[in-house]
């Protein structure tokens, strides 16, 4: 017997397009498909820059908390503004919950109330203190953590005074992050790797048992998948090795370029290295090729994206590899045959699955990636994966069955796997790995698997008592809010002076 249908309220700071946003959309879909009443509250949603389900009415998305506080102040104070916007959202949410109570039908009266808070835990103490369960229903708060925000903050930029200011600025937020998470009734993480980091940072005693709910990929059989073979070979039938990542230094795409160069000129014949943007072309028909493919998110407004693209281009050129850059797939199709490295800066999303399906190997270079959905997307279409033997890939890739895990500091190990895939595996080996990858994606990382794990965690949470959070802590929550507002006012005044 499945979990009794509940009222599920999801709180997410910014419902744009990204891995975290895709995850929370999938969480909502997984629960809504099982009959739960799901509502998403967010402080920002741009209908021109969000997933279809958040725009077309598939999900009930409500934008609140976006009128009093800006997203940042002169490019600064992002975390403070995010917390204040979420608290403003929470005030609106609490008011709407009261309104919803009066309109509750008899059939909905006994539904439990479940809050799922994603990424930012600022609202959790407020929900725990002021959102009281009604009638005979139970109420619980589940926090879905990815990676501690305090470990993502950049504190080593600028001079000594600026770094000191950043430390002082971050200190209350670093403490508040763990304290606010501890108010939730249950904490889950997106991977075992993230769970280990969260436990190390905040302590197991503080958060209780932290379990894992993996992100998912769309395994819907109704969704058409591109075929491995096609009648019109792209770029004269060159061979593709594919890596999908954002243009960020931490993604270490330079490793892929160095390893590719290590094949040597003779082994690189008939191949091409392509570094592409994340938005993939729609409605284009692609054929089987084995080209070197690095696909990553690129935005010319982001300095790191621009500079890292330049660095990668310079690296490839210094190694004697011929490069070219195209802003569209259409222009990329006409590049000269002697180009070794092709940079595609903008490729629409619909074309991503085609690229995955037409490649021979996915290269996933980041070190200590929190989870990494791209290897799972590759396995879904039967593409073997070569990834760093750290972080999330250790949980998604099965060595020798769905791919390979190698030291990210050993270029030669990556080159050896590439050579093996290009020239050492027969069709039977490739088919065996493809089937293993598809089966693993279906069993462990499908929307159904995610829904099962979510309901298990919610059921466990409902069986236990609410984690206590009363008395002086309510007063402290209010004082924290007042202090945050004063901090904003002080920051604005200091900048104006």
Main β-sheet description: 8 strands, parallel
Structural class: alpha/beta
Task: Please state the CA-atom Rg, rounded to the nearest Å.
Answer: 24 Å
**N- and C-termini, Cα separation:** 64 Å
Q: Catalogue the unreliable spans.
A: 280-290
* Number of individual domains: 2
Tell me the helix content. 40-55%
Shape: globular
Number of helices: 18
CATH superfamily of the largest domain: Glycogen Phosphorylase B
How is the CATH topology of the largest domain named?
A: Rossmann fold
CATH class of the largest domain: Alpha Beta
What descriptive keywords fit this protein?
8-stranded parallel beta sheet, 2 domains, Rossmann fold, 18 helices, 42% helix, 497 residues, 7-stranded parallel beta sheet, alpha/beta, single chain, globular, 15 strands
Tell me what the structure shows.
By secondary structure, the chain is α/β, with parallel strands linked by helices. The protein has 2 domains: 6-216 and 449-496, Rossmann fold (3-Layer(aba) Sandwich); 234-445, 3-Layer(aba) Sandwich (Rossmann fold), CATH 3.40.50.2000. Helix content is 42%, strand content 15%. The protein contains 18 helices and 15 strands. It has helices at residues 19-32, 78-102, 124-130, 149-152, 160-181, 192-202, 204-207, 254-261, 264-268, 303-318, 329-332, 352-357, 374-380, 393-396, 411-424, 427-444, 447-463, 472-496, and strands spanning 6-12, 37-42, 60-63, 112-118, 139-145, 186-189, 210-212, 239-244, 273-276, 290-295, 323-326, 341-344, 361-364, 385-388, 403-406. The strands form 2 sheets. It has an 8-stranded parallel β-sheet, with helices on both faces. α3 links the parallel β4 (112-118) and β5 (139-145). α8 packs across α15 (411-424). The radius of gyration is 24 Å and the shape is globular. The chain starts with 5 loop residues before the first strand and ends with a helix.
């Amino acid at each position: 017997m499945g979990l009794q249908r509940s009222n599920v309220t999801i709180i997410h700071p910014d419902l744009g397009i990204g891995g975290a946003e895709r995850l929370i959309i999938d969480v909502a879909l997984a629960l809504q498909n099982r009959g739960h009443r799901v509502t998403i509250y967010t402080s920002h949603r741009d209908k021109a820059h969000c997933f279809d389900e958040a725009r077309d009415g598939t999900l009930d998305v409500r934008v609140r908390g976006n009128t009093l506080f800006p997203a940042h102040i002169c490019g600064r104070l992002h975390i403070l503004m995010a917390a204040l916007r979420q608290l403003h959202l929470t005030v609106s949410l609490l008011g709407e919950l009261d309104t919803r109570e009066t309109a509750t039908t008899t059939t909905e009266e006994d539904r439990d109330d479940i809050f799922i808070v994603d990424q930012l835990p600022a609202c959790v103490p407020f929900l725990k203190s002021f959102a009281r369960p009604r009638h005979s229903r139970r109420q619980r708060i589940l926090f879905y953590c990815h990676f501690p925000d305090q470990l993502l903050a950049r504190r080593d930029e600028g001079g000594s005074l600026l770094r000191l200011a950043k430390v002082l600025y971050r200190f209350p937020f670093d403490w508040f992050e763990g304290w606010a998470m501890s108010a939730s009734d249950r904490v889950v993480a997106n991977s075992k790797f993230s769970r280990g980091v969260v436990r190390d940072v905040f302590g197991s005693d503080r958060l209780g048992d932290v379990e894992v709910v993996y992100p998912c990929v769309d395994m819907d059989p109704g969704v058409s998948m591109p075929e491995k073979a096609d009648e019109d070979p792209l770029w004269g039938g060159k061979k593709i090795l594919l890596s999908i990542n954002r243009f960020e230094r931490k993604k270490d795409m330079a490793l892929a370029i160095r390893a590719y160069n290590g094949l040597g000129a003779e082994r690189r014949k008939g191949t091409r290295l392509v570094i592409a943007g994340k938005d993939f072309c729609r409605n284009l028909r692609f054929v089987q090729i084995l080209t070197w493919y690095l696909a990553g998110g690129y935005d010319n407004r982001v300095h790191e994206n621009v500079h890292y693209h330049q660095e990668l281009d310079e690296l490839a050129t210094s190694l004697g590899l011929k490069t070219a850059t195209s802003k569209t797939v259409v222009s990329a199709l006409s590049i000269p045959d002697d180009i070794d490295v092709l940079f595609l800066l903008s490729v629409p999303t619909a074309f991503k699955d085609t690229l995955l399906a037409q490649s021979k190997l996915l290269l996933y270079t980041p070190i200590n990636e929190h989870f990494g959905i791209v290897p799972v997307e590759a396995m879904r279409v039967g593409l073997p994966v070569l990834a760093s033997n750290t972080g999330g890939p250790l949980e998604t890739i099965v060595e020798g069955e769905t791919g390979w895990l190698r030291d990210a500091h050993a270029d030669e190990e990556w080159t050896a796997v590439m050579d093996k895939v290009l020239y050492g595996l027969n069709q039977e080996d490739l088919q065996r790995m493809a089937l293993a990858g598809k089966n693993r994606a279906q069993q462990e990382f499908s929307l159904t698997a995610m829904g099962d794990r979510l309901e298990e965690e919610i059921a466990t949470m409902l069986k236990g008592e609410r984690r206590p959070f009363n008395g002086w802590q309510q007063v402290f929550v209010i004082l924290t809010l007042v202090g945050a507002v004063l901090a904003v006012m002080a920051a604005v005044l200091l900048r104006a002076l």
